[in-house]
Amino acid sequence: MFTTSDMKKMEKMIGRYILFLLGLFIASLGVAFSTKAGLGTSPVASVPYSISLVCPIFSLGGWLNLLSVLQISVQVFLLGKKCKPVEIIIQTVLAFVYGYLTNLSCLLIKGVHVTTYMQQLICMLLSCFILALGIWIQLKGAVAMLPGEAMNRAISMVTGKKYENVKIFFDILYIVVATFICLVFSGHLKGVREGSIFAAVAVGSIIKLYNRIYGKIIEKGE
């Protein structure tokens, strides 16, 4: 029999997962808007997006799923017996959900037409604010990490390097790899442009802004 305390804990956990999934959807919408802007995507999505442009065997969401599998495999290899099977299963499920949500988001804004550079800039800025909001909501849900961030955490644990430094390294690496793919296979930069660099710098700052706004709202409510 479940006690009242157990029921409350379960309800709280379900609520946190719902919040996390909402954050996933909003983040996927941010990625979709970045592809619509055509000025490059966020660093972690830049490689799947670039590959989808030159090798459309899979959609953007499909390539995101494959990258997630690679990131999960790196975690399992590095952590070995320290790897938690339940956490890996949750990561895998959420990663594939995120991939499909990205495809859904791209479909939802398919009718949005961006024709001028000014419209591209507006769309890019909008994508950064939406992506940051999605990530911020995921952090508030605090139930799991997507494979990319979890891989950074695993590398940080094994090497002793700061998590922030590992994240910066891989953000740069993703952009470099995406740039290489675009130049070699298409001859021009489409998956990686000024928007990729801007997103790498701006998204974190926007998340801090959301935290400040949230903090002020909480203070007023007390």
How is this structure best described in words?
With 222 residues, the chain is an all-alpha fold. It has one domain (6-221). Helices cover 81% and strands 0% of the residues. The protein has eight helices and no strands. The radius of gyration is 18 Å and the shape is globular. It starts with a helix and ends with a helix. The mean pLDDT is 85.
- The secondary-structure class comes to mainly alpha
Contiguous uncertain segments of 5+ residues: none
Q: Number of DSSP strands?
A: 0
Largest sheet: none
Q: What is the number of independent domains?
A: 1
Compute the number of helices: 8
Separation of termini?
37 Å
Helix content: over 70%
**Percentage beta strand:** under 5%
C-alpha geometry: globular
In short:
The chain contains 8 helices and no strands. By secondary structure, the chain is mainly alpha-helical.
Please render the helix and strand layout as text.
Elements (H helix, E strand, L loop, with lengths): L3 H34 L5 H12 L5 H20 L5 H24 L8 H25 L5 H13 L3 H23 L8 H28 L1
Helix pairs in contact: 1-4, 1-5, 2-3, 2-7, 3-4, 3-6, 5-8, 6-7
